[in-house]
Amino acid sequence: MPMTTGLAACAPQNLRLRAVAHLRPFNAVRIFLAVYIGITLFAMTQAALRASDWHSAPKPEFPSDALKRSSEGSVRLRIVLAKDGSVTQVTISKTSGDQALDEVARRAVLKWKLKPDALKPTDLTSGREIVMDFKQEALIAAVHADGRVGGFVTKDGIISATKTSQIWMFAPFPTYPIQARAREEQGTVGLRLTIGKNGRPIDIQIIKSSGYALLDQAAIQAVRLWRAHKEYAGVTLKLPINFGLVHMPPNLRAF
Q: Which of 104, 168, 191, 252 could pair with 138 in a Cys bridge, judged by C-beta atoms 3.0 to 4.6 Å apart?
């Protein structure tokens, strides 16, 4: 049974009616999504870099312009250090393909400081190479202002990153229409889609109707806005989207 919290609505005094929307991907890992506009996040990793070597290594902010362009990539930098561990020189040995990502990586590294006992003689002359990976990630979970919550969950109902969540860099959650909730309309919308070259879903088709036009439409409208990482271009997915109403005791609150 998936975890469920969500919208408070009219219900008997000792119960609270909550509406949620959740998805199940083709590989049987369930996605449980709140009706909440997704926010694109980023993760930065540093290949060939041990965090313990660094006294200070602040992460760069993902440039807003790069987010709008759906830019991702890895920046390889060569850094030369001083005897106190501070970075004195940074050159880009391999570009990410986006000048904004390259520049924000370069500026960030200039603020880093290596621990003295990790300093090598070559760090003062030829320097060392590090790699920063910029990657946009869809939300794993979210809480809407009206109390509805959700997130990607495993088949055991645990909210967590999954293989399916890792496909998407941007995945606004589907809306559970208020009219449908009022009429207690529930059901599963089965979608088939292909990820286009730019990461956007194309050829979105309903292969199984929920039986309710509002729910079918809400599923399609949400998925049209999704964007996948471009390495998944050409992949075809079957994506069941389930809309369900759940009764919960009034003392249980959204986490």
A: 168
Which one, of 132, 140, 172, lies nearest residue 43 by Cα? 132
For 24, 236, 241, the CA distances from 27, given in Å and listed in that order, are: 8, 12, 13
Residues 73-100: pLDDT tens digits? 899 999 999 999 999 999 999 999 999 9
Q: What is the mean pLDDT of residues 44-69?
A: 73
Q: Give the C-alpha separation, 228 to 79, whole Å.
A: 33
**Interatomic CA distance for residues 47 and 38, integer angstroms:** 28
Spatial contact of 224 and 175, defined as CB atoms under 8 Å apart: no
101 membership: H or E segment, kind and range: helix 99-109
- The token duo for 149 is 């919550």
The whole-model pTM stands at 0.64
Residue from 166, 135, 140 nearest 27 by CA: 166
Full set of structural domains in the chain with CATH: 16-38+140-248 (3.30.2420.10), 41-136 (3.30.2420.10)
